[in-house]
Amino acid sequence: EVQLVESGGGLVQPGGSLRLSCAASGFTFSMYAMSWVRQAPGKGLEWLSNISNGGRSTTSADSVKGRFTISRDNAENTLYLQMNSLKPEDTAVYYCAKFDTDWPRGDGAYDYWGQGTQVTVSS
Questions:
Q1: Is residue 99 within 8 Å of 33, Cβ to Cβ?
Q2: 90 phi and psi, to 5 degrees?
Q3: In the structure, how many helices (H) and strands (E) does the chain have?
Q4: Count of CB atoms within 10 A of residue 45's CB?
Q5: In whole angstroms, what is the distance from residue 37 CA to residue 95 CA?
Q6: Alpha-carbon gap, residue 93 to 48, rounded angstroms
Q7: Would you say the C-alpha torsion 32, 104, 65, 20 has a positive or negative sign?
Q8: CA dihedral defined by 35, 20, 92, 2, rounded to 10 degrees?
Q9: How far apart are CA 16 and CA 21, in angstroms?
């Protein structure tokens, strides 16, 4: 079965950095676009970033552009989110998600999600 397992979350001070990982299994990882989304306490899901199946194309939300970088290692079936210059408002549960296509040009949709990993940014 498809599995997405996030890791790397934790407590970090404002201005600090953290790298999240998402280990994928149960499907051909290199065929599908992936995404990071987050949910802050009491709020809805917020899209963060997408990456194409081969990793050559990426998009990011304005709220994290220039601070967060999405990447992937298809040889290791792993998705990453490098987070720098973290702010308290970045506190959230972070999820990786799988698209049902190689790149979401308007016809893509999420079909699987991970369990999430908690990121807390606080002094």
A1: yes
A2: -80, -5
A3: 0, 11
A4: 15
A5: 5
A6: 12
A7: negative
A8: 50
A9: 17
What would the pLDDT profile of 8-39 be if each residue is shown by its tens digit? 999 999 999 999 999 999 999 999 999 999 99
Q: Which of 89, 66, 87, 91 is nearest to 10 (CA)?
A: 91
Is a pLDDT exceeding 80 seen at residue 4? yes
Nearest-angstrom CA–CA distance, 50 and 37: 9
pLDDT, tens only, 67-114: 999 999 999 999 999 999 999 999 999 999 999 999 988 778 999 999
- Amino acid at the residue 76: E
